[in-house]
From TrEMBL:
InterPro entries recorded: Aminotrans_3, Aminotrans_3_PPA_site, PyrdxlP-dep_Trfase, PyrdxlP-dep_Trfase_major, PyrdxlP-dep_Trfase_small
Superkingdom of source: Bacteria
Gene3D superfamilies named in the record: Aspartate Aminotransferase, domain 1, Type I PLP-dependent aspartate aminotransferase-like (Major domain)
Keywords of the record: Aminotransferase, Pyridoxal phosphate, Transferase
Family per similarity comment: Belongs to the class-III pyridoxal-phosphate-dependent aminotransferase family.
Organism expressing this protein natively: Vineibacter terrae
Gene Ontology biological-process entries: biotin biosynthetic process
Cofactor annotation: pyridoxal 5'-phosphate
PROSITE patterns from the UniProt entry: AA_TRANSFER_CLASS_3
Database matches in Pfam families: Aminotran_3 (PF00202)
Protein known as: Aspartate aminotransferase family protein
GO molecular function, one term: adenosylmethionine-8-amino-7-oxononanoate transaminase activity
Length: 442
């Protein structure tokens, strides 16, 4: 067994970490050297309960042996082959398996390598779809405030987290945004989908009239806003968006990079909510985080439009060097096997009521102004300190880590998204740690 050594200061200098205060981190690095099940192992040997499934992605828990063995076997057999005018059997099997659990009528998968690439791919497919249909004026995209759609130019343009966009403008033109659905005056401490807020979907009708409906290609939203603070959709909200899109011939894209592969107790949030979009972006739980992979699942309407032209012509001039990579496809197939064989989606659905009760038991603790949950997702909103800034949530997350529990801060909220295999005892420990920290926090 190879022993992993901790890098010294000189070795750490070369690595530019993403979304990280690099100088601060390297002065006191948080390093992991192993992971298994629900736990990370830190460089000092401490076991850390993973309350974030890595980064919303390790749905089946860490170090699932069937996935590890599938990757090893694939690497020994076929390390790489392009997907441009050639392919390999695992790519077709992976696509077929994903389509088999997708909503009815969504039967085609375009592979990318991350959620960011999946989003940019979906946006390009949307524009190209209307071009092949002869509606070349449909170029506008509608995103939503607080939405996160990766860090590509397209995804960043339709996203709605201001700090993520601030340093990189100007972004793509012809984009607009719906309002988010968080309103603590009406929705605080809702369990699951809030009863208030369906009317906010009607803002899409207003935007359609401002821009002319025939200029809009697609609306892209997360069914449950993730990085923006875990915002479940109000009751009836998604249904109204679907109806407005249908009325005006607009494509509806669900960004299910977080909600896909069991997070809400169903394969996709589209099925959990009973609303089928035209395109679904996915990644993260697609391979249990073990190998980078993303994809776009396309409905038959979209696919058929591209297949109407001459058979010898390339239908979509788009792709990536690593689209459908053999190791990623092997990991995805094995991941889907694990989800099925270990009843992980069903287990998440059974665990959700206990998760909800444990989260809402924090109501009444100091500075807790809202608790939101759905499936195995939750957010604990904390009152900001008088001097402003999201310092309280950051401090709470850091103190939880010191006690051996990994959670994240998003603005003024603590966000939670554990592996779907979390036990009742681990749920109790997770929320007990948060409660203890909140009681001590100023």
């Amino acid at each position: 067994m190879t022993i992993m050594t901790v890098p010294n200061q000189s070795e750490m200098e070369s690595y530019w970490l993403p979304f990280t205060a690099n100088r601060q981190f390297k002065a006191n690095p948080r390093l992991f050297v192993g992971a298994d099940g629900m736990y990370y192992t830190a460089a000092d040997g401490q076991r850390i309960l993973d309350g974030m499934a890595g980064l919303w992605c390790v749905n089946a828990g860490h170090n699932q042996r069937p996935i590890v063995e599938a990757i090893k076997h694939a690497a020994e057999r076929l390390d790489y082959v392009s997907s441009f005018q050639m392919a390999h059997p695992l790519a077709f099997e992976a696509a077929s398996r994903i389509a088999s659990i997708a909503p009815a009528g969504m039967d085609h998968v375009f592979f990318a390598n991350s959620g960011s690439e999946a989003v940019d791919t979906a946006l390009k497919i949307a524009r190209a779809y209307f071009r092949v249909k002869g509606e070349v004026g449909r170029t506008r995209f509608i995103g939503r405030a607080k939405g996160y759609h990766g860090m590509g130019w397209g995804g960043l343009s339709v996203a709605g987290i201001g700090r993520h966009r601030k340093d990189f403008g100007p972004l793509l033109p012809e984009t607009d945004h719906l309002p988010h659905t968080l309103d603590l005056a009406h929705t605080a401490f809702s369990r699951g989908q809030p009863a208030w807020g369906a009317h906010l979907a009607d803002e899409l009708e207003a935007l359609a009239q401002i821009h002319d409906p025939s200029s809009i290609a697609a609306v892209i939203i997360e069914p449950v806003t993730g990085s923006g603070g875990v915002l479940p959709p109000p009751q009836g909200y998604l249904e109204r968006l679907r109806a407005i899109c249908d009325r005006h011939g607009i494509l509806l894209i669900f960004d299910e990079v977080i909600t896909g592969f069991g997070r809400l107790g169903a394969p996709f949030a589209a099925q959990a909510f009973g609303v089928t979009p035209d395109l679904i972006t996915c990644a993260k739980g697609m391979t249990n985080g073990a190998v980078p992979m993303g994809g776009v699942i396309a409905g038959d309407k979209v696919w058929n439009a591209f297949m109407a032209g001459p058979e010898n012509m390339i239908e979509l001039f788009h792709g990536y060097t690593y689209s459908g990579h053999p190791l990623a496809c092997a990991a995805s197939i094995a991941t889907l096997d694990v989800y099925r064989d270990q009843d992980i989606f069903e287990r998440a659905a059974r665990t959700a009521p206990l998760w909800e009760a444990a989260a809402h038991a924090l109501k009444g603790l100091p500075n807790v102004i809202d608790i939101r949950n759905i499936g195995l997702l939750a957010a604990i909103e904390l009152a900001p300190r008088p001097d402003g800034g999201a310092v309280r949530a950051i401090e709470a997350a850091n103190r939880c880590f010191d006690e051996g529990v990994l959670v994240r801060s998003a603005g003024d909220a603590l966000v939670l998204s554990p592996p779907l295999v979390i036990s009742d005892a681990e749920i109790e420990r997770l929320f007990a740690t948060i409660a203890r920290v909140l009681k001590l926090l100023q």
